[in-house]
Amino acid sequence: MTPKNADALIDDRPQDKVFGVDRSVFTDEAVFQDELRLIFEGTWVFVGLETQLPRPHSFFTTHIGRQPVLVMRDGEDKIGAFLNTCRHRGLILCPFRRGDQKFHTCRYHGWTYDSSGRNALVTDRQVGQYTPRFAQLDHDLVRVPRLAGYRGLLFASLNPDVPDLEEHLDEARTFIDLVLDQSPVGQVEFVPGDVTYTFQGNWKLQFENGLDFYHFQSTHSAYLDIVAKRFAEGTAGALSAEPEQEAPVQGSFNFRHGHAVNWSIKNTDNASGRKPLRLEVDAVRARVGATRAKWMLRQRNLTIFPNLQIIDVQSMQLRTWRPLAVGVTEITSHCLGIVGESAEARRLRIRNYEDFFNPTGLASSDDNLMFEYCQDGYAAEAGPTQGYERGLASRPDGAADYAAELGISPVESAVGELFFGGEMNFLPGYREWRRLLSRGRNR
Amino acid sequence: MTPASVDPALRALAADLLFREADALDNQDWANWLAMYREDARYWVPAWIDEHRTTADPDTELSLIYHTTRRGLEERVGRIQSRKSITATPLPRTLHLIAGLTIAEADTEAMRVRSNAAVHVYDARTAAHHVAALRYEHSFRCAPGGGWLIAAKTIVLVNDRMPSVVDFYAL
Ligand code: FES
Ligand SMILES: [Fe+2]
């Protein structure tokens, strides 16, 4: 990597309470190429949900870093991830987003593969005058070295040298559990309907924004005005809000391997008070207990480094991304449905999602443009930004009491007043970023 | 209702309504744009479910935009006018081109009109130029005081990998 190595790009001195990120991590082409190879193609990335593969022979296609990937459920119900490229001459094997197919036939010369990735046909093999060596070659689809699920969330790694998924996810698992356990059967699904968009900015702008509580009041002030008006006029819809018994605060937990979550306790009636979970909270509480139900009702923005965010507010969003260029990112955004929720809860979830999260909605569209203005601003060689300073003076285990409620011990935690908006929860991602880039360079 | 695709007067009327709506949007004349809609108008932009089908049931599937009253459109206009949303400061320039008008159904009270639109969206700050390829279906109804109002509009966004923002003025 030129001109600076990864260590020089992240100024991390915990003992001095200093943290800084060099602007070039957002703009440098060489850094970007290293990120693709060593992060997106070098560690666990989120690829999809098991519920996207409802039956034997169901499949969907996606990308890991730059590489096209085909994920299939085979006839024995085993899920496999393969590079979506024919072994003969490289054609994209499956051109569809999703479907059900026992066999995938390459459209160029007809080689055929089954849903377990095995080659079932080399067209006209007998008359092909192949050498004996050809019979020794593996004609099956190339398997992605690591694929694992955590309670139905599928992660894959093109690099075999990664820890087990559970270890990788660390205690961020607790926050995935707080999503899944809202369902009586412990499952989530994507509400049908694809939403994909691009923004002209580096992927880390989305990574940061998902952890950025601080921006909300200013970036989304037009949205907040609309919500306030709906409440004033009584058009926000009636949902029996269950006021928090605890003092309003905003906090975050940092985990190993780059993951972090921010959360807030609010006791005012606002948009997130219209959470669909409220319609079924009694049943959920009976199942999971008062403490976890309380946490399920709270705003939680979870980031699983490097490419997954799950936002649980008045609706639930699962967002993933694919860097297309140093300054272009493709976002795929899903409305996350709780399997087993009522039709009324589902409808409310969908409406709230469209209102807030869609690029055609009233809030996320603001974020997306902020990213583009940031990217353009980063062209200025104005030195390190001051965007990682909030919360640096906080105690490293400031929110330990809150963590104890959930039985977790995050590597760092912070809490403050409702408008605290600490930036400490960006740090684990950058530390993992630096670790992965340095590790690759030193190999 | 009877198919009336060959009645030239009706075609002229429908075209006039579509061009008026496009003109209001391109001139950022929001008051007149909203005034073309009934209060109970449905405004629907479905999402795509796979390569060839759009979502069909807004209560169980996702839409890009789904409003069941004009109120949703008024909120969008209000957000733009507040100048608090970065998406509107500045607002891109737009240009709507409409073609392929077909009258699907018509009688003296109501008509359903399909058309195709290409909306050019130009960001004056970055000079980025994007074209939205759209299929429109308008349901018009006679207004009590004369004239016609939009009772429902469905917009299918053909090129659905969107740039960072898509809002009513660019549809
Ligand atoms: S490239 Fe696939 S069969 Fe030839
Ligand atoms: Fe935001």
Total domain count of chain A: 2
- The radius of gyration over CA of chain A amounts to 23 Å
CA-based shape of chain A: globular
Q: Please list the strands of the largest sheet of chain B in the order they lie side by side.
A: 2-1-6-5-4-3
Commentary on this structure:
- The complex is a heterodimer of chains A (443) and B (171).
- Chain A is α+β, with helices and mostly antiparallel strands and 443 residues long.
- Helix content of chain A is 28%, strand content 25%.
- In chain A, the strands form five sheets. In chain A, strands 13, 14, 15, 16, 17, 18, 19, 20 and 21 form a nine-stranded antiparallel sheet that branches.
- In chain A, helix 2 crosses helix 14 and helix 9 crosses helix 10.
- The mean pLDDT of chain A is 95.
- Chain B has a single domain, classed as Roll (Nuclear Transport Factor 2, Chain: A).
- Chain B contains three helices and seven strands.
- Classes of the chains: A alpha+beta (443), B alpha+beta (171).
- Chains A and B meet through strand 14, helix 8, helix 11 and helix 12 of A and strand 2, helix 3 and strand 7 of B.
- The structure holds FE2/S2 (inorganic) cluster and fe (ii) ion (FE2).
Give the SSE map.
The complex is a heterodimer of chains A (443) and B (171).
Chain A: H1 6-9, E1 10-13, E2 18-21, H2 29-40, E3 45-49, E4 58-64, E5 67-73, E6 79-83, E7 98-100, E8 103-105, E9 112-114, E10 119-121, H3 132-136, E11 146-150, E12 153-157, H4 165-169, H5 172-180, E13 188-190, E14 195-199, H6 203-209, H7 216-219, H8 221-233, E15 249-254, E16 260-265, H9 281-288, H10 290-297, E17 299-304, E18 308-312, E19 316-325, E20 328-338, H11 343-356, H12 364-377, H13 400-405, E21 412-416, H14 427-442
Helix pairs in contact in A: 2-14, 9-10
Chain B: H1 8-26, H2 30-35, E1 37-46, E2 63-67, H3 71-81, E3 93-106, E4 110-122, E5 129-142, E6 148-157, E7 161-162
The structure holds FE2/S2 (inorganic) cluster and fe (ii) ion.
